[in-house]
Amino acid sequence: MKRFLLAAAGFLSLVGAAHAGTLDDVKTRGALNCGVSQGLPGFSTPNDKNEWSGFDVDFCRAIAAAIFNDPNKVKFTPLSAKDRFTALTSGAIDVLSRNTTWTMSRDTTLGFNFAGVTYYDGQGFLVRKSLGLKGSKELDGASVCVQTGTSNELNVSDYFRANGMKYREVIAFGTLDETVKAYESGRCDVFTSDRSQLAAVRLKLTNPADHIVLPETISKEPLGPLVRHGDDQWFDLVKWTYFALLDAEELGVNQKNVDEMLSSPNPEVKRLLGTDGKYGEGIGLTADWAVRIVKATGNYGEIYDRNLGPSTPLGLERGLNNLWNKGGIQYGMPVR
Amino acid sequence: MSDQTLSPHVFVSSVLLEPAPPPVSDRGPVRWARAHLFGSVPQVLLTLFGIWLVFAVIPPLVQFFLIDAVWEGTDRKACLPADVGHPVGACWPFIWAKINQLTYGFYPADERWRVNVVYALGAVLLLPLLIQKVPYKRLNAILFFGVYPVVAFVLLTGGNFGLKRFLLGYLGFDGLFPIGATVAGLSVAFWADFVVSSALLALGAAALARFVAGPGAGLGAARNTLSALGILGAVLLAADIDVGLQPVETRLWGGLLVTLVIAVTGITASLPFGILLALGRRSHLPLVKICSILFIEFWRGVPLITVLFFATYMLPLFLPGQLTIDGLLRAVVGVALFASAYMAEVVRGGLQAIPKGQYEGAMALGLPGSLKMRLVVLPQALKLVIPGIVNNFIGLFKDTTLVLIVSIFDLLGAMRAAFTDPNWATPTTLFTGFGFAGIVYFVFCFGMSRYSMALEKRLDRARHH
Amino acid sequence: MSDARLSDRGAVRGRRWSWTDPKLRSSVIQIALGLVLVWLAWSFYANAEANLSRLGIASGFSFLDDRAGFAISQSLIPYNENMSYGRAFLVGLLNTLLVAFLGVILATILGFLMGVARLSRNVVIKALASAYVEVTRNLPPLFQILFWYLAVLATLPSPRQSWGLGLQPIFSGIASGLSAIGLGVLATPFSGLAAAVGAPDVYVNNRGLILPRPVFGEGSGAILIAVLVALVASFVLARWARKRREATGRPFPVFWSGLALIVVLPLLAAAATGFPLHIETPELRGFNFVGGLSVMPEFVALLLALSTYTAGFIAEIVRSGILAVSKGQTEAAHSLGLRGGPTLRLVVIPQAMRVIVPPLTSQYLNLTKNSSLGVAVGYPDLFAIFAGTTLNQTGQAIEIIAMTMAVYLVISIVTSLIMGWYNKRVALVER
């Protein structure tokens, strides 16, 4: 019996083992587990070989590049809006990069930390042109389709209430595809979501030209990646990946010229690229972490232009998402 | 006057008359029709209604799926009535375009032959097992239930797991073995650990057996432990060895492949586990009995999707950080546990139907408990509940669709994803897709139910002889 | 293992400790099982505790009082987004119970019809019923829900092109049919009738089924009381009639008199209170119909799929139940002069019920659990509202999943208890 108890005690040590840091877990595993949306053109879509691309996807690739020097060491977990937080809380994913709105409750009671705002967005309405609506104040009596588990679901009822309108019904669907399908089949008069998402969804409709996005923006939707509470090192790593992307754009470091920039005399560039100082070690990586990021994915502007910018089918102007010195509010913290 | 007239019974005919044929209304097809179709006014009405229904349903279906159907094309234009110029039925090119996703998911194109081999191997091994007349049933069963899963597993995942540590390693003795050293791609640390652990386990088992069962039991216990570990080692070796296949992650699997993997693993795992649970529920040991009852009733009481949700998104919360379990595996385990609770109840029904005399007879022969169950009770009990077991298999097969709720794309999920492709958005895409998926599900489920009926009939006949 | 044990039996005899000693063996097994269970439970608890405290998530059920903030598309009780998560939980629970309750009723009716039809002598009916059973039983329920929702209901016309149901469309349909075959003279009265009944009251479109809604004005409580009184009275009447029949053999038309009670009493009450009830008819205004009662397509799809699916299983249960009643019973009933219908109703089905009830119970439970698949089409049931939206907003994963599972378990247990009680009543009483 005594021997049995000893063996049992040995097993217990397996369970009680202190939780190593997320970065260590990721390194042991050899891949980053990244939660993305289930298919949203421009942000995260798989091709027919299940290779993912998009704005949110590239952010995870940047993290993987910083850790492994290989942007492909990411396992993408497609998540519906409703399931994303449970997956992050439980540890099924390491970082959630799924156009998630930064709200106070998510940042506090839900137990997450937002690493920044990678995309400043706002909520809008998509309707059929044939309805002849001029603005969202004319939506009284409409049936509204929305994806469940989003901030949009909460905003829409507030908006109707605040403007003295009544919706006929708000039908909440489990996934984006279901919501869009329902809107397209005529189940609802209007589909509401973040404007970037509306632009992406419109492209997936059979006849995009039959649908328009109403001019009003009814809410602030700062979208960004987030991590769990309780691991400051990991939080720092994700946060500074974001800042490095912004700083690289601001300093003119891009995918093409990053090798030349290594010999740049500019002290800011030198600190960012690790030729001066070892700032990367502060987040558990090596000094040249930002070089790896920019080489793999380019800077913030390149990621934006490649996935969302005017040359893509989505054609979204930078607007608020321009750098602070170019009329936007994207502002990378200095590496120092 | 002839003699005849002198007969004492003049009025009696000496020859028997042939019986007159029944009236036309009561023989041949008319009688059949009266009995089966036009017996009474309500019968006539029902028959007419039925015939109308048949004509209302079948010709349009044939029209839609065959006559008006489009068979060739490269995009939605082929199936748009405006472009084609006539009413369009099923849009089969949509299925052809998506067939790879529906059968393999995102499984890499160059590696799909592996899936095909697994499909073919499964069929080749399963068919003779199902046909009664084919000999070598025992060997066949071993191949199908023992070897095939390992082969299929290695083929589908690519094997070469790169196992790092076994028991001792996890217990904190990694230092004993040369970490990182490999021989022929196999980790020395793992296999040294495995051998040492096995030896230690065998010794422990021998000591325990000696302690509780007397000095003679030690050797047997050690031998049994070693052979069990030997089988485990063979399986692990097969999974660990580098067979030169490119590894394919389960997240790339999809479509029919996922449906079949979940169904087949669930089916093979739920039967033994269900039997164990059923035996546990009838056990004399109060703790075993209570645990079995709680387990069975819990799984039977909650919807499968809550279980899948828990297994997919919440389980890591309850496990230590470094332990990760493959997503598909978690879903498979959820489905299998769910099915085994139902299986347990079916098996329990069979166990209850075995007369007490059978138990007593086995005991009188001096068979210990495990042999009594294995040789006498279970074979009879399982035979009795074959229909119930197959019904559970069918239920499990249908339940595989629920993994769609946790973002695993089985056949139905892949079909649903295909519906969202704007390149194939036509008025008839949905019906075509549902028609195709429906036929696939129907063929599998209906096939299983027919086979079980045939089996039941055969066993019934065997009982009567 | 067993071989070794068998051969060693002789050597073992006489020792106090023996593996074959059932007492020792059972306590060793149970202690081991107990330890494993305690270890599992403890490690689950410890890991969850450690993970949650690291995340700084507060646990507990206080979130149930917080403002929910989201709208729910179908609710049986008054609900708006300013109410609490607890209220949302209740709304979801009621929606689950609603679809389960109606589904059970529909499935039972359809299942019994199909089960009897499968045993019909009429080959056409028999073949149709068999086809129905095979098709519904062999397709996954989720497939059927999606089929009804995506392929059938979503293709219905938009609100502006709604199909009207009721007398008006029938009359105008007849009128146009008659004039089409050149009998315009006969068509005139029908179009007149169509105009007289006015607009249809029931509409079907891709937003659902829109029905007239009874609006209860002041004093309509009296009608409700009258309905209750009538129900109780007809129940008492039925008992009295049965007693009298058993005592004297004289039958009493219970069904018709009960029906009369249930119709007449509320009518009288309505007349006495000056008809406080009026019907609100739906009307197309703006995007949608305003007024009336609308049944959402998500609900219809779920209800249709669940009840037709389960009916396939019930039909098989009913069929085997009827077959389990020996043929002698039917023949005896016939020889007593009972016709086919009464034989089935009075002799066969009551005996078949004891075979039917236990598997029927598990079908009812399956239907209830399958109602959680409504989440796939956006029906706001318990799983969608509570384990979906509420969980997403509050992050209280463990509490919410535990509550959701507990609710389903309680529903299961209650249904089992009710059916167990009923089963005892219909079970064969041996005298």
TrEMBL record, chain A:
The keyword Transport applies. The keyword Signal applies. Keywords: Signal, Transport. It comes from the Bacteria. Residues 31-261 form the Solute-binding protein family 3/N-terminal domain. Gene3D superfamilies: Periplasmic binding protein-like II. SMART domains: PBPb. Residues 1-20 form the signal peptide. PANTHER family: AMINO ACID ABC TRANSPORTER PERMEASE, AMINO-ACID ABC TRANSPORTER-BINDING PROTEIN YHDW-RELATED. Belongs to the bacterial solute-binding protein 3 family. This is General L-amino acid transport system substrate-binding protein. It comes from Xanthobacter agilis. The lineage of its organism: Bacteria, Pseudomonadati, Pseudomonadota, Alphaproteobacteria, Hyphomicrobiales.
From TrEMBL, chain B:
Its main location: membrane. Keywords: Cell membrane, Membrane, Transmembrane, Transmembrane helix, Transport. It comes from the Bacteria. InterPro entries: AA_ABC_transptr_permease_3TM, ArtM/GltK/GlnP/TcyL/YhdX-like, MetI-like, MetI-like_sf. PROSITE patterns: ABC_TM1. It is found in: Cell inner membrane; Cell membrane. SUPFAM superfamilies: MetI-like. Residues 256-452 form the ABC transmembrane type-1 domain. The chain crosses the membrane at residues 44-67, 113-131, 143-163, 183-209, 221-241, 253-279, 291-315, 401-419, 431-451. It is a multi-pass membrane protein. Belongs to the binding-protein-dependent transport system permease family. HisMQ subfamily. NCBIfam families: HEQRo_perm_3TM. PANTHER family: INNER MEMBRANE AMINO-ACID ABC TRANSPORTER PERMEASE PROTEIN YHDY, MEMBRANE COMPONENT OF AMINO ACID ABC TRANSPORTER. This is General L-amino acid transport system permease protein. It comes from Xanthobacter agilis.
UniProtKB/TrEMBL annotation, chain C:
SUPFAM superfamilies: MetI-like. Keywords: Amino-acid transport, Cell membrane, Membrane, Transmembrane, Transmembrane helix, Transport. CDD domains: TM_PBP2 (cd06261). Gene3D superfamilies: MetI-like. InterPro entries: AA_ABC_transptr_permease_3TM, ArtM/GltK/GlnP/TcyL/YhdX-like, MetI-like, MetI-like_sf. The chain crosses the membrane at residues 27-45, 88-119, 170-199, 219-241, 253-279, 299-318, 400-422. It holds the Pfam family BPD_transp_1. This is General L-amino acid transport system permease protein.
